[in-house]
Design goal:
mainly alpha; 8 helices; about 75% helix
Length: about 200
């Protein structure tokens, strides 16, 4: 992909992020949007499965505050020392620090409350703002960085598409895990995807 296309895509998604952020700030800091409810109800029905509850609880914790710090440090160290991707490791570490810092600022400025329905008991007392999802931002940075680092090393188109699909799937699973545990609503995830 050439630089002009990359910059165009980045500019368009950045503009869409700002538009959605302003819309949420002005109209939806306390209430869900109409398309949030069906997906929240679907996730709530899945909470009856103990296997899915254990999986999504563990998966979401892997990208949370403590789990995210450990995951980010391990990935950066592995990239830098074991896989000899020094620039990639430093780039990932810097992007993680910048991205999570920017996300924290956005949360304070927007001030969107967390949903209070369908929340799993283990997440009932957690506080904070929900817009934008730090878990989703970190997952996008992690899987997007790994994709970009290894994309050029793959020779076949099918391997590149497979890597892209895997990165996207793992990111979407983190996003859905936040909805599953009752901590985020969908508009936030759309904005996180555009932001990153």
């Amino acid at each position: 992909m050439n630089k002009k296309i990359s910059y165009s895509i980045g500019t368009i998604t950045g503009i869409l992020f700002v538009i959605l952020a302003v819309w949420v700030k002005l109209s939806h800091t306390q209430t869900p949007l109409n398309f949030d409810k069906p997906i929240q109800n679907f996730a709530f029905q899945l909470q009856n499965s103990s296997i899915l509850t254990h999986f999504f609880t563990a998966y979401t914790n892997l990208f949370g505050d403590t789990g995210g710090i450990i995951t980010a440090a391990l990935v950066a160290l592995l990239l830098f020392f074991l896989f000899k991707q020094k620039i990639g490791g430093l780039w990932f570490a810097g992007l993680t620090v910048f991205g999570t810092g920017f996300n924290t600022l956005v949360k304070e400025v927007i001030g969107r409350s967390r949903p209070d329905i369908h929340r799993l008991v283990a997440f009932a007392n957690q506080s904070g703002k929900s817009f934008a999802s730090g878990h989703s931002v970190f997952a996008t940075i992690l899987f997007g960085s790994l994709f970009l680092i290894y994309f050029t090393k793959l020779k076949t188109r099918s391997a590149k598409l497979g890597l892209a699909g895997l990165a996207l799937l793992l990111t979407v699973l983190v996003m859905f895990s936040r909805v599953f545990v009752g901590y985020i609503i969908q508009v936030i995830l759309l904005v996180d995807f555009l932001k990153d």
